[in-house]
Each structure stands twice: as C-alpha cells, then as structure tokens.
Amino acid sequence: MTSSSETTNKNGATTRSGAGLLKVLGVWFGISAAVGNTIAAGIVRTPGEIAQLLPVPFLFMGVWVLGGLYALCGASSLAELGAAIALSGGQYNYSRRALGDYAGFIVGWSDWLSACGAMAAMSIVVGEYSAKLFPVWSYGEKSISVAALIGFALLQWQGVRWGSGAQLITAAMKTLAFAVLVVACFVAGGHGRVTIATTSLPPLAELNSGWPLVVAIMVGLQAVFYTTDGWDGVIYFGEEVRDPGRDVPRAIFGSVLAVMAIYLLLNAALLYVLPMQEICGNKFALGTATQRIFGPYGDPVIRSIMIISLLSAINANQLFCSRVLYSMSSDGLFFRPMGRVNKGGTPVMALLLSTVVGIAFILGSFERVIAMLSFFFVANYTLSYTSLFILRRKEPQMVRPYLAWGYPWTTGIALFGSLLFLVGSIATDRENAPIALAMLVASYPLFLILKGMSKRAATCTREPHH
C-alpha cells in the first residue's frame, strides 16, 4: 500500500509529494554516478584474485563476461522497479513497498552505513596515495582524508546541481584516465611479456576440473559481482530524475555497459602487458602493468589515476548516503529532521549526519563494521529481486513505464545468483556473518523505537498549539 507521502506522476510512476527535491537530473548523471561509484579500488586487486583462481586467459576473461551478463539480468529487474517506484533512496524503497516497513528499514540502514563506510575507506586511500605522491604530506594522511570528505559535503550543500556537476566532471576525468591507460598498454606494452622470465603455467588439462572448477568460477564471479556493484547508482535519485520512466532504465543499462566495457578493456590490457604468472595473486596488478609501461613514472601515474577515481567515488557515495537517510526520514523510519531539504535540493541534515559518521569512520576503526555489512549488501539485492516478484503478483495494476525483459527468467537468474552469493558469504565468513545476524535481530527494537519517535513527532507538528 502506498504511503500517504507518495503519489503518482503523469507517467504513472510512484513519487513523493511535496518532498522538496529538484527534478533536474538526466541519463548522463545517472551513468556518471554509477561509473564514479563502481570503478574504484576494487579493479586494482580483483584481477589478481581471479587470476589466482582461474589462471587461463579465456577463463579469466570469461568470468568477467559472465559477471557482466549477470549484471544485465539484475539491471533489467531494477530498471522496472526504479521506473515504477521513482523515489530517491535506492533499494530501500522496493523492499519497503513489497515487504513492509521493517524490511525497508533493514535495507535502508545497512545501505546507509555501508555507503558511509565506503566513502570513508576511499577517503583514507586518497590520503595514503596523496602522501605517497607528495612526501611533505606524509604526516597528514588523516587530515587529507577528512578534508576530501568535508570538501565534497560543502560542495553538495550548495545544491544538487553542484553535486551532480562534480560527479559528471570527476567521472569523465576517470573514464578518460583509464582510456589513456588502456591505449598506452596496447601501444607500448607488448615488450613487457617477453622481457620477464617466468615459469610456464600448467596446461588447461592439468587445472582443476569438475566440481573444483565450478567452485573456482563461482568464487571468481562473486569477486566480479563485488567489483561491479554500483551500476544501479541512478536509483538513489528517482525523485530527482526529470523523466524516471524513460531515463532510469537508460541510465541503468548504460551504466552496466559502460562499467563492463572499461573493466574488460582494462583486463585485456593487463593480459597484453603482463604474463598470467605476474597477474596471479598480485594485489596491485594494474600498478605493475603501469610501471611496465611508464617505468619510474608508473607509480605516480597509477596513484594519480586512482586518486581521481576515488574522488569521484567519494562524491557519489556521499550523494547516496544523504538520499537514503532522507528517504527513510520522509517515510517515518528515521528522525524527521533528516528529511529537511534546502533550496538547492540537498537533504542538508542527512548530508551533515552522513559526513559526521564518515569522519568518525576515518578517525576510528571500522573494518569490522564493513565486513559485517557486506552480508547485508548481498541480502539487499536478494530482497530487491524478490520484491519484483511480489509486486508483480501483489500490485498488477501498478503503472510500469518499463517492463523487465525476459521476466521471470532474468529476474529468477539474478535472484538465484544473489542467493548463492548470500549462502557463500555466510559459509565463508564464519567470523562476521553470525555477528551480522545478531545485528539483524537487534535492529528490530531500534526500528520500533525510531518509528514510534517519528510518529510522535509527526503528531505533534499536526496538533494546533494552544
């Protein structure tokens, strides 16, 4: 059932009435938010992890292609949900609509904390890389990290046009930097393979076969899944997209194709420059390839590219954080003041709290928190794909500007894959998964408290003062 704060626009999509957000965003912003968020530090280390599991070029590249096809199945489902339920705040809205307030609350707060942690982690790496490039800053890594977070917060405080403009510029710079790197690898990287003496890899027949090979492919796919996550960035801005029925699906599919094109080109470039032995287990394979191309300048080149890449991701995650918190507050699942929006279309109180939490993560130790929240990361996708099935049955009359192609098969594939990854996350992380489940149990009383406080606050504002 639709909340009283929601209505239907001229295209039939669900929106919030009187929300205060500005409808000024389009397809290119949606793609830039996804590219900015997705392509970050993961591409540096993931190729080495996958090559360790599948040390044969066609298997190594094949798992990236499979990951892209899997993302397309998920993209089709989220495109339908994002076009029909055009609300800012991401996947929170779909679970809440299909499964109720508590399911939405779980998705919302875990997504918010994950995004806060992600932007903190990226800020820390920016500080570390900047200190490496400029040794005079070596004693101020934390200060650089905090400054990056505060700088983007001040920019976004000016309004959504400022935040979206920064995202478009940084994402374009990132794409151009990686494109130059790929071209350099193919133009000048052929000599790298023949100048390094390495032992030969075993032939394909000697590699794991049967069930062990299937497991290796599944683990490799999981690594690709984590590295490509973020292609759905536009769904955090549903209320701010000018024509969500048309632009949200276009942005989602454009994001998947853009991210996968960049990743496939980067991995092909790696294979061209480095022999497979050097990629296997290499946690900085992209850096190794860059050093092979640019010699002593390789390290500053790759660190500069990564700083640009991470700055774009910080801005994107900060935008996501404020929208999730704003959305939950507007629906009465968090403190009402977090729903305040300024004239520029920025949820200012949500942005302030998110930035404070991000700074706390930078100054403290939060690796354990992020490890626990990775469990919810997979669970949130599982709930979203489940929500599509439920809403198709529960609300057949809902106006759907876009229908998921291949439904129910593509949605079923996406859901089955998410369930497998979820089971794998629980099975492989015996330390953090039980704590995450305990957090899930503990979240219910918190949900009741916050919902009760929000209801009381709303009642007080409606009652006349005597």
How would you sum up this structure, described in words?
- The protein is mostly helical.
- The protein has one domain (22-460): Amino acid/polyamine transporter I (Up-down Bundle), CATH 1.20.1740.
- Helices cover 71% and strands 1% of the residues.
- The chain is built from 17 helices and 2 strands.
- It has helices spanning 27-38, 42-53, 57-84, 92-99, 101-133, 141-157, 160-188, 191-194, 211-228, 244-273, 276-279, 285-294, 298-330, 348-363, 367-394, 409-428, 433-462; strands at 6-8, 14-16.
- It has a two-stranded antiparallel sheet.
- A hairpin with a 5-residue loop joins strand 1 (6-8) and strand 2 (14-16).
- The radius of gyration is 22 Å and the shape is globular.
- It starts with 5 loop residues before the first strand and ends with a helix.
- The model is unreliable at 194-199, 202-206 and 461-466 (pLDDT under 50).
